[in-house]
Automatic annotation (TrEMBL):
Transmembrane segments: none annotated. It is an enzyme of class 2 (transferase). It holds the Pfam family Methyltransf_23. The lineage of its organism: Eukaryota, Viridiplantae, Streptophyta, Embryophyta, Tracheophyta. Belongs to the methyltransferase superfamily. METL family. S-adenosyl-L-methionine-dependent methyltransferase. GO terms for biological process: methylation. InterPro entries: METTL2/6/8-like, SAM-dependent_MTases_sf. This is tRNA N(3)-methylcytidine methyltransferase. GO terms for molecular function: RNA methyltransferase activity; S-adenosylmethionine-dependent methyltransferase activity. Keywords: Methyltransferase, Transferase. Its EC number is 2.1.1.-.
Length: 299
């Protein structure tokens, strides 16, 4: 073996410092825990569910949900108090809806609202579970055809079973991926550096040909312009007084995140809406980013 080839194959064991890596990982986990606790407090304060209005426009903006086949599986990521889950369940009888959130309080509110507002059929088609997808990823039973017996999977299935209700047999089985992922005003609540992993998790959990349905805050939205400059913690990234975050997207940022994950862009545009507050006689200029992205089909 030549000296040049030997040098190219030299073994490395000190490429980075372990203590520094540990510090970075612990910092990320502590940050994720603070985010979850902030959203727990947020949903506890707004426990009546009146803070968020039911998003009845969803099936019009995303007609793929209204026309999908019976027993299509939808994963609602960051379900909050159920303002997205509720119109999907009510608007399309055949959909099976899985919904996750990093906040236990949010899941409790969602469960209460779905139970009070929908039919027995919808309740049986609704499966919420606790998950911070941007740090730990989605549980493997969402994508796997065969569940691996591990402590993580048992914990994940237990969390799902606790919320699943009468249809727990289906909830406990591996579902082999989902047909749609809805990411509605969720990505903006994450730190910018966790967004690439979050989008990649959505890509991995979809079946080939499945779609990511996206809607979030756009740059120059009214709420962005109202933020105190001192609340700015990054480029278009703000931290509210309650510890929750908000990021405002441009089209290029969304395009970059989704293409890097492997998605094919189907639609991507700004939605510019005049929201009228009749009581105060004010018109509010809202800017949202609307997008549809598809996972390539198998050839």
């Amino acid at each position: 073996m030549s000296r040049k080839r030997w040098e190219a194959e030299t073994y490395h064991s000190k490429d980075f410092d372990w203590d520094k890596l540990r510090e970075e990982v612990v910092t990320q986990l502590e940050e994720a825990q603070r985010d979850s606790e902030a959203w727990d407090r947020f949903h506890a304060r707004h426990s009546t569910g009146k803070f968020f209005k039911e998003r009845r426009y969803l099936l019009k903006e995303f007609p793929e949900l209204a026309s999908c086949e019976d027993n299509s599986k939808v994963l609602e990521v960051g379900c909050g108090n159920g303002s997205t889950a509720l119109p999907i369940l009510c608007g399309r009888e055949g959909i099976i809806l899985y919904a996750c959130d990093c906040s236990y309080e949010a899941l409790e509110r969602t469960k209460e609202i779905i139970t009070a507002s929908t039919s027995i059929s919808a309740i049986h088609r609704f499966h919420p579970f606790l998950c911070d997808f941007s740090t730990t990823g989605f549980p493997s039973w969402l994508a796997s055809n065969t569940c691996l017996e591990s402590s993580f999977n048992r914990h994940s299935l237990g969390s799902l079973e606790a919320y699943a209700g009468a249809n727990s047999d289906e909830a406990k089985s591996c579902i082999g991926g989902v047909d749609f992922v809805t990411l509605i005003f969720t990505l903006s609540a994450l730190p910018l550096d966790r967004m690439p992993k979050a989008i990649k998790e959505c890509f991995d959990i979809l079946k080939p040909g499945g779609m990511l349905l996206f809607r979030d805050y756009g740059i120059y939205d009214m709420t962005m312009l109202r933020f105190d400059p001192q609340r700015r913690i990054g480029y278009r990234e703000y931290l509210r007084s309650d510890g929750t975050r908000s990021y405002f997207f441009c089209l290029d940022t969304v395009r970059s995140l989704t293409s890097a994950a492997g998605f094919i862009e189907v639609e991507l545009e700004y939605c510019c809406i005049n929201a009228v507050n009749r009581r105060k006689g004010k018109t509010m200029k809202r800017v949202f980013v609307h997008g549809k992205f598809q996972k390539p089909s198998l050839n």
